[in-house]
Specification:
The protein is built from eight helices and nine strands. The chain has about 220 residues and is of the alpha/beta class. The chain has a single domain, classed as TPP-binding domain (Rossmann fold, 3-Layer(aba) Sandwich). The structure holds ligand BJW. Its cofactor is Zn(2+).
Length: about 220
């Protein structure tokens, strides 16, 4: 089974989504913070954006939807892969172990000079040096527009093999994740969507259930 999650699964933990009312990008142009060009132009602004989200993450915890997916992993073991677009660590804190962060991780720093990854320690608004190579090339270890998401080979393999594809709390506006449902459909794999509102690809799913993740996901898992 492959479960794709998006910002909607963490919304009830207190982390804003991107495109909903009151979302992170309400009144902001994502291209100013979520592209390599934005980072090159104004790294301090981008660091501030991620510093704030790191602080917010430290103040919240996983919710009933994350916990339900951790229970599902207990039951299915290696037969479940959670592919998350989220950069938070709420799946892991709920107990999930087989989680692929296709858009990177908020608590990781990536050195573009030597390719090392480090735990993110403290606010980095002032550009710290990489502990491995000493250059000041540490950036948020996240995938911006125009960059290639992580683990695509593994994801494609899992989608190819799976008996059920489930999408939870994502608007279906960002590719390649938005195309996973079409990939599953082309293979004849059953598909299910659990989302508050209709997503962009809602008509592609065999079944769509509407409601908050903390209600829908435990009800589906249990
Ligand atoms: C609830 C809820 C509750 C709320 N319960 N539900 C033209 C056509 C096609 C593609 C492109 C194109 N032009 C450019 C592209 C490619 C581009 C793209 O998709 N652009 C679109 C804007 C069109 N994509 C890329 O550039 C990607 N790379 C790429 O394609 O490389 C090429 C390649 C691919 C594969 C193999 C080889 C090469 C990279 C995309 C990177 C996205 N990065 C971000 C930022 C990450 C760091 C960060 O977090 O800051 O990822 S953007 C942002 O959007 C973030 C998210 O992961 C992503 C998706 O958002 P998500 O999770 O869906 O959130 P929302 O807010 O949109 O939706 C929330 C949903 O939850 C809503 O539906 C609510 O109803 C629901 N909800 N409360 C249940 N309580």
């Amino acid at each position: 089974m492959v479960v794709l999650t998006g910002a909607g699964i963490s919304a009830e933990s207190g982390l804003p989504t991107f495109r909903d009312a009151d979302g992170l990008w309400e009144g902001h142009d994502p291209m100013q913070v979520a592209t390599p060009e934005a980072y090159a132009t104004d790294p301090a602004l981008v660091h501030r954006f991620y510093d704030e989200r790191r602080s917010a993450l430290a103040r919240v915890g996983p919710n009933a939807a994350h916990s339900a997916l951790a229970r599902l992993e207990e039951a299915l073991g290696d037969d479940l892969l959670v592919v998350t677009q989220n950069i938070d660590d709420l799946h892991e804190r709920a107990g999930s172990r087989r989680v692929l962060h296709m858009h990177g991780r908020l608590r990781s720093a990536w050195c573009t000079a030597c390719d090392a990854r480090h735990d993110w320690i403290g606010p980095l608004g002032h550009h710290p040096a990489c502990p491995d190579c000493g250059t000041r090339e540490l950036r948020p270890d996240v995938v911006w527009f125009g960059e290639v998401p992580h683990g695509m080979d593994r994801i494609e393999e899992a989608l190819w093999d799976c008996d059920l594809f489930v999408s939870i709390g994502t608007s279906g506006l960002v590719y390649p994740a938005a195309a996973f449902v079409q990939y599953a459909v082309a293979r004849g794999t059953p598909t299910l969507e659990l989302n508050l509102d209709a997503s962009d690809g809602t008509s592609d799913f065999d079944e769509s259930r509407r409601g908050p993740a903390t209600r829908l996901v435990p009800a589906w898992v249990d």
